[in-house]
Amino acid sequence: MAAEAKRILMVEDEKAIRDAVAAYLERDGFWVRSVGDGQSALEEFGRHSFDLVILDLMLPKLSGERVCRAIRDSSDVPIIMLTAKGEVEDRIVGLELGADDYLVKPFSPRELIARVRALLRRVRYEQEPPMEVLDFGDLKVDISGHKVTVDGKLVDLTASEFKLLVTLARYPGRVYTRMELVEKVLGYDFEGYERTIDSHVKNLRAKLGDDPRNPKWLYTVHGVGYRFEVPQNGSLAS
Ligand code: CA
Q1: C-beta separation of 122 from 173 below 8 A
Q2: CA of 64 to the centre of ligand 1 (A)
Q3: Which end of the chain has fewer CB atoms < 10 Å from its terminal CB, N or C?
Q4: Where are the domains of the chain?
Q5: 7-127 belongs to which CATH class?
Q6: What is the pTM of this model?
Q7: What is the rounded CA–CA span in Å between residue 208 and residue 139?
Q8: pLDDT at position 119
Q9: 13 Cα to the center of ligand 1, angstroms
Q10: Would you say residue 97 has pLDDT above 70?
Q11: Structure confidence at residue 96 (pLDDT)
């Protein structure tokens, strides 16, 4: 028996893009509702339950920004933000509004589908109970024991470096802005500390032996922040 189709709300005012994406998603087995403005998006969101929302940032009637905030007031539904210009600020705005991922126009429907699938997988993973030990093969992060090993050797991390690593490694592939990391790792909400995160990342890389020019785990997302990746040959222990 086929699994129930995942339900997607597609919000985009450019009809050609909206129709193309909806057709592509439907062909891929998704159940899709598509609307062309922010007001209709919120009405539609209130009418059905959705597994994921694709949200254009620039929308008539109610901006994508306001739609995103309104959805986040009541829901953790995964949101992919579509940004027109590809401006770094737009991407940061999207992530800080609570979007989970962003895609810069023009994008291929194939890329969008890949992002949708990846995000749905990630959400499923996040909903599972937290693992006490994050096991990435040669890198092991023992959260309750506050211990990190690389190739079986203990790595001596400061409390902030440990928190930073755990924050990133819990959700591989998720991009964290510097501001998010400041809040999560340092616990304050102040822009001047973004550089502090850069130096923590630098120290963490040195201690793990992760080369920033050819990273294995810690990736810089230029102008935005950082993300953790599971190396292709590594796997998450179940
Ligand atoms: Ca638009």
Answers
A1: yes
A2: 9
A3: N
A4: 7-127, 133-228
A5: alpha beta
A6: 0.57
A7: 9
A8: 87
A9: 5
A10: yes
A11: 72
**CA distances in angstroms from 93 to 65, 82, 89, 105, 146, listed in the order given:** 8, 11, 6, 16, 33
Residue 163: which H helix or E strand, with range? helix 159-170
Cβ atoms of 183 and 192 within 8 Å: the answer is: no
- Band (pLDDT 50/70/90 cuts) for residue 30 is very high
Q: What is the pLDDT of residue 100?
A: 85
Interval between CA 49 and ligand 1 midpoint (Å): 24
Alpha-carbon distances of 166 from 69, 70, 143, rounded to whole Å: 27, 30, 7
Run of H or E including 54: strand 52-56
**What is the distance between the alpha carbons of residues 109 and 16, in angstroms, rounded to a whole number?**
12
Write down the CATH number for the domain with range 133-228. Answer: 1.10.10.10
Q: Per-residue pLDDT tens for 46-76?
A: 999 999 999 999 899 999 999 999 998 888 8
CA–centroid distance, 85 to ligand 1, in Å, is 10
The H or E element containing residue 153 is strand 153-155
pLDDT in tens, 156-205: 998 889 999 999 998 888 899 988 898 888 776 565 677 888 989 999 99
CA of 171 to the centre of ligand 1 (A): 30
Any idea of the CA torsion for 111, 112, 117, 120, to the nearest 10 degrees?
Answer: 140
Residue 82 CA to ligand 1 center (angstroms) comes to 8
- C-alpha 56 – ligand 1 centre gap (Å): 6
Instruction: Give the mean pLDDT of 118-132.
Output: 72
Q: Which two tokens stand for residue 31?
A: 């159940």
Q: Which two tokens stand for residue 84?
A: 């027109």
Residue type, 215: P
